[in-house]
Amino acid sequence: MTLDQFTQQVRRQPFRPFQLVMVDGSRFTVDHPEFVSIDRRGRAVTFHATDNTRHELDAQFIQDVVALNADASATVGGPNGGENPSGGERSTP
Question: Sheet holding 18-22: strands in order across?
Fold first, then answer.
């Protein structure tokens, strides 16, 4: 993941939910831009899931940032923000 990919998804207008895909295959769904941030060095991502748990993610282990389809985001759930069962589209830098 690049800082540009992350910033592009967070600042997208209108905002669309997206997933942070980790190198181990786990996925975290970001459903609102105010619930995710990256530190000034671009090394750590802080994410608040739908159940209000806070996750500190090491940015070097984020493999991809994937934009979700509008209809898929409505069905996503789970303690870590969920996994997108119907896939998504890859973001482009």
Answer: 27-30, 18-22, 62-67, 89-90
pLDDT value for 33: 95
Q: Hey, which residues does 54 pair with through a beta bridge? A: 48
Residues 6+ apart with CB under 8 A from 64: 1, 5, 20, 21, 90, 91
Q: Specify whether domain 3-90 bears CATH 3.90.1700.10.
A: no
Amino acid identity at 74: A
For 68, which DSSP code? P
Listed in order, strand segments (DSSP E) in the chain are 18-22, 27-30, 36-38, 44-48, 54-58, 62-67, 89-90
Place of tokens 């769904």: 29
User: Structural domain boundaries of the chain?
Assistant: 3-90
- pTM of model > 0.90: no
What are phi and psi for residue 5, nearest 5 degrees? -60, -45
